[in-house]
Write a structure and sequence with these properties.
By secondary structure, the protein is an alpha/beta fold. 37% of the residues lie in helices and 18% in strands. The protein has twelve helices and 17 strands. β16 and β17 form a beta hairpin.
Amino acid sequence: MTSQEILALTDQYVMHTYGRSPVAVDHGDGARLYTPEGREYVDFTSGIGVCALGYGNAAWLDAIHAQAKKLGHISNLFYTEPAARLAEILCKRTGESCVFFANGGGEANEGMIKLARKYSFDKYGQGRSTIITLQNSFHGRTITTLKATGQDVFHNFFFPFTEGFRYAAANDLDALKAAAGDDVCAVMVELVQGEGGVLPLDKDYVKAVEALCAEKDWLFLVDEVQTGVGRTGTLFAFQQYDLLPDAVSFAKGIAGGLPMSGILANEKCRNVLGPGTHATTFGANPVCAAAGLAVQEALSDAFLQEVQEKGAYLRSGIESLHLPCFGKTRGLGLMIGIAVQDRYSNKEIAARLADNGLLVLTAGPGVRLLPPLVISKEEMDQGLAIMAETLKQ
């Protein structure tokens, strides 16, 4: 099919729930994508942080192919090797105790919310179920995770929302304490607020929140749906904050392009969700888990160090362009936000860049870059050149 045929068919038969760029993608290679007609794009999006190993990675493809030939799916009433091995690796690399595997980020955060409320119910009984999240956060698009999201724009249309959430300003411990009460069971944060604009939390603030949670016996929950799996230059962002959270959600890059997510939990939360309290049909799918093992194999310490170096290179390259529409960059590793000057529109900037062969994302009022972790210097330089030519005036 041609690009125009794909666009027309999609518009006719698929719900219009996305503000799509008029680009039909046929295949990819590394950090480059191609239309059916062969037009090339440098990809600074990786499927919104999902395709960690880029496109066409041989080891990832081999792992999927080998597992699909053996077993495509079996329920969690039985055991499979790929999920067991992936759980072991994630626990040993993080210091957490156990894993629950799910399918997407919103589902992982739902599970983490359930874990926190049941932990408190088991220990204290009813009346201690409120979770404090941060203003400008984003935790998903289910009814519950929309309410957990600390942005009023998401609290519309779908009434009634799940109750039991309060919000505090980020990097303000006094605001967090003011939102507290005897009904609180947990605090949930993104260490880098992704959809809110790629805004890293202050490390001293995060350590203070961790201490407050320990004092109050609140669970400290970290949403690493976007920041996890090497995106920030460590396996998980919490490792750069010297933390061991009570529970951590992950998704996006975990299986390198296949739908997978989950929750890591520490020893005190290990047995909170017992048989019958939580489940999902496709969680721990063996093909997805095999893909996840290939991703973990790639994410060596040397590879993660390169992610940090690539992020620094790309941020330095953007700021050295001195483009009139851009301000400072921010972020960790290859999770990069770019401030957009007031008189410019981030959506118009993204559209102009796409017209000239570079795919980027928006977040809050800024531009967001989440390139494949395997992106080469040549691909980064090509993207920077497109930025320079497209946005010079």
